[in-house]
Amino acid sequence: MRAGIVNPAHMRGMARFWLALGVLSFVFAVLPAMPTLVFLGSAAAHECGHIGAMALCGVPRRGLRLMAGGAVLDGEFLGVPFGKELFCAAAGPAVNILFAVLCSGVNTVCAVNVLLAVYNLLPLDGNDGAVMLYAAAGMCGAEDAMRRLLRVVGQVLWAVLLMLSAWVFWYGALADQRGGSVGYGALFFCVLVRGIRGVR
């Protein structure tokens, strides 16, 4: 790159890097270390489940985007059969459920993986649950009807999750003098940032 010429893609990449670094700094400063590390490891395992399924199905990967509320794995699903798309979407939550079963004696690992699986299976736009329902409806020729239905369901679910996150944040702020619950309430808000655009 010549001096004096700004590369927009490079600037966006740097902005994402600093945003991710800032979020991680906040997470480790506010939240207890062990549950946070378990969460990050479980989220990474979740994405590895998707990557493995995509490799098995021959679906090209375009990239992994890190966001305030998690990660989004982009794949080239155009022309891919609905059954393979369903399998790829289900692989992430399946890994979390497997970890929860295998680590059932370790409360933190089990709880974090169950929560990750449940959240990702919610039929919210961008979540694995919505992709699975779209793919299943596509196999029956009803993808458009499912999309219309999930648009309404998604708005109701986002409203409920926003109220729940506000309650978690407020309850934590009142009840936890060490700030742990406050941090988890704030993290829950960050997770919801990923889907705020869907509430329209």
Task: Please describe the structure with a list of short key phrases separated by commas or semicolons.
mainly alpha, 200 residues
- Give the beta-strand count: 2
Spatial gap, N to C terminus: 41 Å
Q: What is the molecular shape?
A: globular
Radius of gyration over all CA atoms, rounded: 18 Å
Task: Summarize the main sheet.
Answer: 2 strands, antiparallel
Oligomer: single chain
Task: State the share of residues found in helices, binned by percent.
Answer: over 70%
The helix-strand sequence is HHEEHHHHH
Mean pLDDT: 76
In words, what does this structure look like?
This protein is mostly helical. It has one domain (31-198). Helices cover 72% and strands 6% of the residues. The chain has helices at residues 8-30, 33-57, 82-102, 107-121, 128-139, 143-175, 180-193, and strands at 61-67, 70-75. A two-stranded antiparallel ribbon has the order 1-2. Strand 1 and strand 2 form a beta hairpin. Helix 6 runs antiparallel to helix 7 (180-193). The longest helix is centred in the C-terminal third of the chain and has 33 residues, at 143-175. The chain starts with 7 loop residues before the first helix and ends in a 7-residue tail after the last helix. The mean pLDDT is 76.
Write the layout of secondary structure elements.
Layout: H1 8-30, H2 33-57, E1 61-67, E2 70-75, H3 82-102, H4 107-121, H5 128-139, H6 143-175, H7 180-193
Antiparallel strand pairs: 1-2
Helix pairs in contact: 2-3, 2-4, 3-4, 3-5, 5-6, 6-7
